[in-house]
Amino acid sequence: MERRKKEEKEESNIEKLARLIARDPEVNTIKDVYEKIKELVGPLIQGMLEAELEDELGYGKYDKENKKTDNSRNGYSSKRVRTSVGEMELKIPRDRKGEYEPKIVPKYKKDISDIEGRIIGMYGLGLSTKDIVKNVEDIYGVELSAEMISKITNKILPEIREWQSRPLEEIYTFMFMDGIVFKVKDDGEIIKKTAYVVLGVNIDGFKEVLGIYIGEIESSKFWLRVLNDLKNRGIKDILIASVDGLTGFPQAIKTAFPDTIVQRCIIHQIRNTLKYVSYKDRKELVNDLKKVYKAPNKDIAYSNLQDLKENKWTKYKLALESWEKHWETISPYFDYGDDVRKIMYTTNVIESLNRQYRKATKNKTSFPNDDALLKMLYLATINATKRWTARYRNWSNVLNELSIFFNERITKYIYNS
């Protein structure tokens, strides 16, 4: 009960503070608001410094009766620091013995705005707003509201917009596209939305997330918009695109990039097949399907598929006919050597990234808006891609093979790089 009263009092104080700032005749612009906030933040930090020294000495400023140390206060030194609301002048309290080391404003540090960086970092790791508030209070002794956390993390939105619109390279050797579904509040209703993720492999063999797009449930129509955006950002050619089994996906790719080879993900194809297979038969059928997708060439693979469909697994003929129906997009990888096959025949590389997204968002049952989802996925992307420091294995072999198959489409970029 007392805690509730305290919270209500704090909330009323915040509202009162907002009204006071709004009524101030000198506050006419956003800059004026920041200046007014600086006037409030300064005393807050000053009070924290005083509290630190009091804790260090063990007695209050005017409480000499409880003094149990031969150390004492020794005035102040002036220090100008940078904060999130601009520069400000602080008075750093000193002790006579020089043993006091400020934690809020460390001795040689002039930029104390890193609290925001820490908050954004925690947000990117998937911590809930409640956990972030608690951690900030534990580390800094500062109480922040959920609204303040949101405002701080919103500061990266311009950075995200810039990242989303950055120029891309003219050619990508491989591209992987997949969608991951989240729940997002829209017009007061929680609905399912898809985060469309595009990952490319450049001519030097390095992976790069090209964009994240929030839209309605996954559709070829939206993917076409994504592909057109990639074109507008500078991509002229994609050699091979590996995708899941979404209906209309190949047509969307061919519309935007007519010469691109479309490879249907084998892992997705197997999963789709097993939807129509009894649980007791799945293990054996998966093992038999290896005769198809691990065959040495396209002709043998197709022959083995016919054998499974017409002989051993006639009761799952309908499920296996899906392989036949989509053979044009299932079979392209048979034309290439092992090094290229390993890259293109599955979208596992982007599904691995999706697992990082799931890990970062596991504490979120839903998001208040698209921006909240985009912020978390962007920060998770930055964290995940920090480890992408090596190119694909045997990349020189891959590049040589691609240059034979695609000739001048790729060689003109190799010679110009």
Automatic annotation (TrEMBL):
Keywords assigned: DNA recombination, DNA-binding, Transposable element, Transposition
Pfam families: Transposase_mut
Gene Ontology molecular function, alphabetical: DNA binding; transposase activity
GO biological process: DNA transposition
Cleavable signal peptide: none
InterPro entries: Transposase_mutator (IPR001207)
Assigned protein family: Belongs to the transposase mutator family.
Functional description taken from the UniProt entry: Required for the transposition of the insertion element.
Designated name of the protein: Mutator family transposase
Organism: Tepiditoga spiralis
